[in-house]
Amino acid sequence: MNGDWADLAPPDVQTARPRRQGVVGPLLQQAFWLSVIYLLIGAAVAGLRRHHDSSFLLNLSVGLDGPAHALLESVGLWEGLLRRFALGALKPWQWRSILAAVTVVIIHAQALTLGLLLSVARALFVRAART
Question: How many CB atoms lie within 10 A of CB 103?
Fold first, then answer.
């Protein structure tokens, strides 16, 4: 002991360097919370529509389902799912679960894409600063 405060810390803290946190991790964590909030809002709107069916709530519900609808339509699954729902082969909770799952996938894909783009941009800026 040489009287330094660092001697009082455990050995792993004495030699630990600050951990560099990437861009993708925090964005995926934010995407998780965003999807939780999005799904809670969707559930609240669906619950309110059961008791107070207004044009505002209908438009809000359609708007919340818009990204999932666009993705399912672009991959050619929308018509088949809509037909199954209309015929009663899909229950309303199954329909909502499919739309919710697709929405969560969209949110996480956007966060991952943004995280990767920011990581690449950061790496390019760091490389440019070194030269």
Answer: 21
DSSP assignment letter at 94: H
pLDDT for position 113: 87
- Identify whether 3 is part of a domain: no
Q: Is residue 73 part of a domain?
A: yes
Type of residue numbered 88: G
User: What range does the domain containing 50 cover?
Assistant: 22-130
pLDDT tens for the 131 residues of the chain, in order: 555 555 555 555 555 555 566 666 777 788 888 888 988 998 999 899 999 889 999 999 899 999 999 999 999 999 999 999 999 999 999 998 999 999 999 998 888 888 888 888 888 998 989 88
Give the pLDDT of residue 28. 77
Listed residue (96, 94, 100, 92) closest to 36, CA to CA: 100
Split into its structural domains, the chain has a count of 1
In a domain, 39, yes or no: yes
Q: How many residues are given for the chain?
A: 131
Whether 41 is covered by a domain: the verdict is yes
